Amino acid sequence: MKSHLALLALALFPFVAIGEPAKEAEKTAAAAPKVRLKTNKGDIVLELNAEKAPISVENFLGYVKKKHYDGTVFHRVIDGFMIQGGGFAVTGGKLAQKPVGKGIKNEGRNGLKNERGTIAMARTSDPDSATAQFFINVADNTMLDYPNNGGYAVFGKVVEGMDVVDKIKSVKTGVSNIAMLHPATGEKLEMPAQDVPVENVVIVSSTLE
């Protein structure tokens, strides 16, 4: 009888040993999904922090799944500060803002800092106005952390391709006319913008890893 029990135990234990790590791996993947941004300068892989920034991560992934970011550009680049993208695409030879959804609740006080290599939500002076645009910090930008103006919500970090980010931060920039959408009416407004790359830095595709 004892030998039968021993054989039964040996048969069951491998299922427990294999099953539990698999469940943990699934939890980790859900809490820290990865997104690959394929750009014309190289690939950037982002690890998102769904535990500390669930609203921002869900929002970002929603735009990824809708292919919103495909064909958009990094339209604002400031070396020593950040690279910003996710909102504009080239239309008729000019940068034009893409339609987006409603603004999300700001998670600027989630404890994550705007350190070099982190990704955060871009927004207006209204803390709850972030939609699709994001920026990647290329320096430690403590002035963007809570409580300053509600904080700019960090929701992940670069885990591959920081060399690509550094390539982008160093591109030549200038003043260019861009087509903005009025936040209240949706009316197109053409206006000059600073820190626009002279040559387009394009997000060719964004995919969930």
Question: How is this structure best described in words?
Answer:
- Helix content is 24%, strand content 35%.
- With 209 residues, it is an alpha+beta fold.
- The chain has a single domain (32-208), classed as Beta Barrel (Cyclophilin).
- Strands 1, 2, 3, 4, 5, 6, 7, 8, 9, 10 and 11 form an eleven-stranded mixed beta sheet that branches.
- The protein is globular, with a radius of gyration of 21 Å.
- The termini are far apart.
Top keywords for this entry?
eleven-stranded mixed sheet; Cyclophilin; 209 residues; alpha+beta
A few lines on this structure:
The model is unreliable at 5-16 (pLDDT under 50).
Terminus-to-terminus distance: 49 Å
Quantity of strands, as a count: 11
Mean pLDDT: 89
CATH class: Mainly Beta
User: Whole-number radius of gyration?
Assistant: 21 Å
Helix content: 10-25%
The biggest sheet, with number of strands, parallel, antiparallel or mixed sense and barrel status, is: 11 strands, mixed
The H-level CATH homologous superfamily, spelled out, is: Cyclophilin-like
Tally of structural domains:
1
Class from secondary-structure proportions: alpha+beta
